[in-house]
Amino acid sequence: MSQITMSFLDKVKNLFSTKPAEVPSSTEDTNDANILQPTISSPEVITVPNADNATFSPEMDIIPFWLENEDALRDEGVIFGLSESKAEEKIASIRNYFAHQTAELEKTVEYHSEKIGEINLLIEQKETRIHELTEKTRVLENKERTDHQLLRTAIGVTLSLAMCVGNYYLIDESILKNFPQNHRVIALGVFLAGMFNLFNPKSLFHEKDTKISWRQLLEEVGMPLAASVFVFVQALETQSVLRSIALFLFVFFLFLFAGKLLLSNLTVLKTDSGIWLDNLRLEKDKVNKSKEWEEEIEKLKAEIDEQRMDKWKIVDTLKFPEAELKRLNERREMLVKLFESEFNLARSYREKLTGKQIQDILK
Question: Which of 34, 201, 235, 268 gets the highest tally of CB atoms within 10 A of its CB?
């Protein structure tokens, strides 16, 4: 197959350009008249040589010449355009060749890109952890101690216990004459009976906007009143009426309020103790946990710096295969467009040309 050194358009232009005929110089009258006009031969059947449309195989060691030479590729486009061959065959050969050329490069780029993605994920996880630790440190540093009244509550509990103990001894002293042998046990029983209202969570006297039934009132006041009346009767034998009445009222109101005061102080004591322990823990955490978190943050930052260095090493390694892959892909698209351009141009002129003219173009 002969090589076509001129573009297809130039061939067509030269084909239709006029050429003057050579005449003797002695005939002056016919010097300008005798010019031969181009003659178009009658249509005839012309056979166009088959183009080299063999598909490139990775096992082939020989690269087709038309892939290394752009002028040769233009010739292939013209030959395919003037023949009955399809452009897709040659384009598939071009893409197949470059697919073989870029296969290893694509694997290399994919491998290094995955490594970069893994490193980016690790860096993101460590940065998230750093943000969490920084936020925890800030919250811990800004957290203030909670006020409490532990000392006051402890004194209140002590006084409430003293009131209860004093009430017990007062009852014991009042019944000592009538029950000389088991007066301590009896006094304890009377004391516990009077403290029966301790089992109610809250005194009815502290309830607001609540309707109190007679059963609730009896449950709240019945046992303290009965215990106080028992003490009053025992005191009448050894004390005056006035003292006995005073003892009755004193013991009755101690039963009603001292127990509830003791339980309330115990509840407050538990709450204040928890607050006090939390404050101690807060001070300890501000020293220990803040230091621990700062050390972890510094360690994570060092790991991130190291991973970023590894990442940039991979990025540097990736630059060459990416650039080479881009160059080959651009080269492939350029060759495809070049072939398609010559093919389409030749195909558009094929119906307008005679077999003789096609043969002249292919010479």
Answer: 235
Q: What is the amino acid identity at position 320?
A: F
Alpha-carbon separation of residue 107 from 56, 241, 285, 321 (angstroms): 21, 110, 52, 10
pLDDT digits (tens, 9 = 90+) for 198-210: 655 555 554 555 6
Q: How confident is the model at residue 257 (pLDDT cuts 50, 70, 90)?
A: confident
pTM of the model: 0.52
- The reply to whether 278 and 208 lie within a common domain is yes
Residue 134 in any domain: the answer is no
Q: Is residue 125 part of a domain?
A: no
- Residue 228 lies inside a defined structural domain of this protein: yes
Supply the range of the domain harboring residue 352: 8-117+309-362
What is the distance of C-alpha 165 from the center of its chain? 64
User: Rounded to 5 degrees, what are φ and ψ at 81?
Assistant: -70, -35
Query: Which pLDDT tens digit goes with each residue over 84-100?
Result: 778 888 888 888 988 88
- C-beta of residue 150 within 8 angstroms of C-beta of residue 273: yes
Position 267 scores a pLDDT of 80
Q: Which letter, b or e, does each residue of 151-185 get, where b requires 16 or more Cβ atoms within 10 Å of its Cβ?
A: eebeebbeebeebbeebbebbbebbeeeeeeebee
Asked whether residue 137 is domain-assigned, the answer is no
What is the count of structural domains for the chain? 2
Quote the CA–CA distance of 234 and 240 in Å, as a whole number. 11
Q: Are both 283 and 357 inside the same structural domain?
A: no
Q: Check residue 202 and give its pLDDT.
A: 52
